[in-house]
Amino acid sequence: MNIEQFWKAVLAQDEREIRKYFHAEAYINWHCTNEHFTVDEYIIANCEYPGEWDGIVERIEIVNNLIITVVRIYPKDRSVSFHVTSFIQTKNNKITAMDEYYADDGIAPQWRLDKHIGTSIK
After folding, report:
1. Contacts for 47 with CB less than 8 Å, ≥ 6 apart
2. Over the stretch 59-113, which tens digit does the pLDDT of each residue have?
3. Looking at residue 33, what DSSP letter applies?
4. Are the C-beta atoms of 72 and 64 separated by less than 8 Å?
């Protein structure tokens, strides 16, 4: 399975291409919002999400049938950005389960800034 091409399809909100990567009985969990989706529901949630999106695959780790990705996602105008960490279970090069965790990108909270601890990663 080409995980970078999968993410390209997800970011392009390309329903037909996304569907090719999943087993029919696969499921997707978005833990931050406590949502469990079938493949059809995931495609609706992804492809009907407002706006046009882009992103960068920042990290890929593969352990047996588990693919772990970290992707920075943002609208094409780059007005905001998010990071999604995905744990993708595969069988026969198709996704059987995907657990995702989304986080808003932003500055550290004021209480940490006030302590003058930490430095910028980039």
Report:
1. 13, 14, 15, 18
2. 999 999 999 999 999 999 999 999 999 999 999 999 999 999 999 999 999 999 9
3. G
4. no
CA distance 2 to 116: 42
H or E element in which residue 25 lies: strand 22-30
Side chain identity at residue 87, one-letter code: F
CA distances from 22 to 43, 64, 69, 101, 117 (A): 11, 18, 16, 19, 43
H helices present in 1-122, as ranges? 3-12, 15-19, 39-47, 110-115
* Amino acid symbol at 115: K
Tell me if 1 sits within 8 A of 94, measured CB to CB: yes
User: Which pTM was predicted?
Assistant: 0.93
